Structure formats: structure tokens, C-alpha cells
């Protein structure tokens, strides 16, 4: 089987930014790493006398990760199981080697740190755009060793609405067919806001597929970040809950009606939430006050999802048969999330024997659907 991994990540070397970002922007707001060592006196969680903590990724004087505290760093340092995977993900050749090891034929390639930089709430429009464009240049070079197997996904800055079309036109000219954006509001504007009209219009005209990929620790308004600081609670909220909000935001903004040819993909949020969420929207929210939604929601929300959206599954999650019954097997995808810690339980056998799904549906998910979509 030719397995297509729809969610594979790079590990951006910190040295890349000076080479690929506009020199004036880099001088003004340099990305760099800060190395930290902690003594045993500062932590009761280890018997080691000193721990060399994972470096802190910074832009200027500001860490790019929010609530990334010493306890999380210690846990990361003491559990370096995926160190080799992270090293492989630093280069295109290494990525190909890892794909060969995993039995992956082709993969969409996503950032790890770059999205936290360009969506950081404390940086300017100009800096955000420059880092997005610098990353896009770098990822094309990263994927150059085998562009048939390594499919780069472009980053877009959402800080400044006046350059949406300019950014997306450049992305299309560079040969990208997919962009990735975060699901949450950026600069207090959600995806259905009218300021995004030019954004969706450009995606429609340029035939760019929109891939939502959330994450924990953004300096922004991710669900839960206003009330929690622990990794447990932040990680519990960030992915699936933001995916649900993004779908509602697109509904509220009438985006599906106005731009019916744009395809939307929800990644790394699982799929088991979907049957309940669409049931609630269809049966409670949509019929409650029909006159209030008639201008922007003209059919049941589940119909919009089936027409316009795709979603990635996680092999161990419950209720996948319900997802298939609701939206069909042709809307499902899979991603390993390599080289992040989630990847450690991945195996070909686990994919080929996903509980609750037929072998035909598994083949659709791993091979047929992504080949048709991408």
C-alpha cells in the first residue's frame, strides 16, 4: 500500500532564519535559542545533579511558546525518546530516511516552530509576514531532494489583512498547492470575520487547499489559555476544541456558501468529536431560530462538512465507524505527526488494523483519499 502521511513535521534549524528572512527584519527581531541548565536544587523531580534543558526558542527577547515552563522542559529532557526522529526531521534527506523506515510513500510537510513565530501576538505585521515568507523559501529547499514524495505546505501571516492576496499569490507562484493556518482567532479576528473575504477569495481563485493545524502553547487566544497554565489542561483543549470552533466560524461567516470550491482539512484533532458536534449543530442550533441563520447557513451544517471538509483520524480513537456512517469514508485522512511525541506509537500494523473500520475504508484513508485530494 502507498501510504500518504498527511501530517508530517520538520524541525527547523535555528540557523535557517538568518539565511532566509529579510536581513533588516532578522536584525530587528532575530530568532534564536537560549540554553538553560537547571541544578537539582531547583527541582525535586529528578535525582540528577544537573539537567541540560531543551533550548528555549525566542524571537527577540520573547519565547515563542506560552506557558512553556521549567517543569515541562525537565520532563522533555528526561524523556528524549524521539531524539533521533527530531534529528532526522531537520533535513529533507533525513525526512526521506524516516519515511523509508516508517513505510511512508508520500507526505505533507508541516512546520513545528515557524507557526508559533508568525502567529505570535506580540510581533508586528511586517515581522510576521517576513518570517512566513522566509519559511516558505526554506521549506521548498528542504523538499527539493524529492518533491514527488515531500509535499511542502506553505505558511501565511494573518496579522495584516491588506496583504492577504499578495501573500497567497506569491505562494501559488512558488508552486504550493496547500496552505496551513491555525484554527483560532489571530489578532482578535476569527476565520468567519469579514476581514477574511479577500483571504478566502484568493484561496478560491488560486485553488489553494486550506489545512487547519492547531497546537498547544501559542502566544494567542487558544481555547483554555485564558484559564489554564498546565500542559495537561492546555493540551487537552487546544486541538479538538479549536477545530470545532473553526468550523462554526466558517459557518457563521458564510464562507462555505461564498466559496464552495475551497477545500478545508482538519488535522491532528481526531475525528470522534465530529458526530456529536454535527448532531448538535444540525438538531439544536440550526433549527432553533432559522431566520437568524438563513442568510449564511442555508443547509444543515453536516451537509457543509460533507461537501467541503476532510478530517484526519487517530487509529486508537473510539467511534470511527460513526464518523464513516456520518460523512463517508472518502473524507478521512491520516497523519503520523512525526517527529513529535505522538508519533512514538505509530506502526504500519496499527494502521492496517484500525478498530471499527473495514480494510477497504482503511485503504481509502491511507492511500486513495489523500491521493485524490492532494
Could you please describe the fold and organization of this structure?
The protein has helices at 16-20, 23-28, 70-78, 83-88, 92-102, 114-118, 125-143, 164-173, 197-206, 231-238, 240-252, 255-258, 273-288, 290-293, 301-308, 320-327, 348-352, 359-373, and strands at residues 4-9, 31-39, 50-59, 62-63, 106-110, 150-152, 154-155, 178-181, 209-213, 264-267, 309-313, 332-334. It is globular and about 60 Å long. The model is unreliable at 42-46 (pLDDT under 50). The strands form 3 sheets. Strands 7-8-9-10-11-12 form a 6-stranded parallel sheet. A 3-stranded parallel sheet has the order 1-5-6. With 374 residues, the protein is of the alpha/beta class. Helix 8 (164-173) runs parallel beside helix 9. Helices cover 43% and strands 16% of the residues. It is built from 18 helices and 12 strands.
Task: Describe the protein's topology.
Elements (H helix, E strand, L loop, with lengths): L3 E6 L6 H5 L2 H6 L2 E9 L10 E10 L2 E2 L6 H9 L4 H6 L3 H11 L3 E5 L3 H5 L6 H19 L6 E3 L1 E2 L8 H10 L4 E4 L15 H10 L2 E5 L17 H8 L1 H13 L2 H4 L5 E4 L5 H16 L1 H4 L7 H8 E5 L6 H8 L4 E3 L13 H5 L6 H15 L1
Parallel strand pairs: 1-5, 5-6, 7-8, 8-9, 9-10, 10-11, 11-12
Antiparallel strand pairs: 2-3, 3-4
Q: How does the overall form come out from the CA principal axes?
A: globular
Cα Rg: 21 Å
Q: Low-confidence segments, ≥5 residues, pLDDT <50?
A: 42-46
Strand order of the largest sheet: 7-8-9-10-11-12
Instruction: Tally the beta strands.
Output: 12
Q: How far apart, in Å, are the first and last alpha carbons?
A: 17 Å
Measured by DSSP, the beta-strand proportion falls in 15-25%
Report the major sheet.
6 strands, parallel
User: Count the helices. How many?
Assistant: 18
Mean pLDDT, to the nearest integer, reads: 92
Order of helices and strands, N to C?
EHHEEEHHHEHHEEHEHEHHHEHHHEHEHH
Q: Structural class of the helix and strand makeup? A: alpha/beta
Percent helix among the residues?
40-55%
